[in-house]
Write a structure and sequence with these properties.
disordered C terminus, disordered N terminus, 6 helices, Multidrug-efflux Transporter Regulator, Chain: A, Domain 2, mainly alpha, 7% strand
């Protein structure tokens, strides 16, 4: 007699299987557990360090975390949303509004990436053409000047000489 294993009936999995299924690093999984984003069951095996048993629901949670991060949400925000959802404090109309906001952010991100792709194509063409004519600049494609670049595109750097931090905007070339 064989037992068919469907995704819903699949037995719990140890961290090694969970890591393989989700593509997350083992350390990341443990961090998510400590942070409360993943809530596997602890077993009696393993002594002082009990084995963690993950379920399909945990696999789904890992996907939700990944999507949230891709949308720019912090782990704290993701955790708060998941907690509100589990406790029933996130009604459907609010979930729909959040999803619409996420979709708008994705569309804005896609538009920005299209502009960047156009810039890179133009830059490649300019170089392949012997660098004749005006060099393409990012501002031609984004409509922004260097001074108008969003604050979030600045990178924090530490001066090797002084150890002090400084801001640097990404170069547009």
């Amino acid at each position: 007699m064989s037992v068919e294993c469907t995704p819903q009936s699949r037995p719990d999995m140890l961290i090694s299987e969970f890591v393989r299924r989700t593509g997350l690093a083992r350390e990341t999984v443990r961090y998510y557990v400590r942070f409360g984003l993943l809530q596997p069951q602890a077993t009696q095996k393993g002594g002082r360090h009990p084995y963690l048993m993950f379920t399909e629901e945990d696999v789904h949670s890992a996907d939700v975390i990944r999507v949230g991060q891709a949308l720019g949400l912090s782990l704290r925000e993701i955790g708060e949303l998941r907690k509100a959802r589990r406790s029933g404090d996130l009604p459907r109309n609010k979930r729909i509004a959040l999803m619409q906001d996420q979709l708008a952010r994705l569309e804005a991100k896609a538009a920005e990436l299209e502009k960047l792709k156009s810039y890179v194509r133009a830059k490649i063409g300019w170089q392949q053409g012997g660098e004749k004519g005006d060099e393409p600049t990012l501002s031609h494609f984004t409509g922004r000047t260097k001074n108008e670049m969003p604050q979030k595109n600045r990178r924090r750097l530490t001066s090797p000489a002084t150890g002090s931090s400084m801001s640097r905007r990404p170069r547009d070339q």
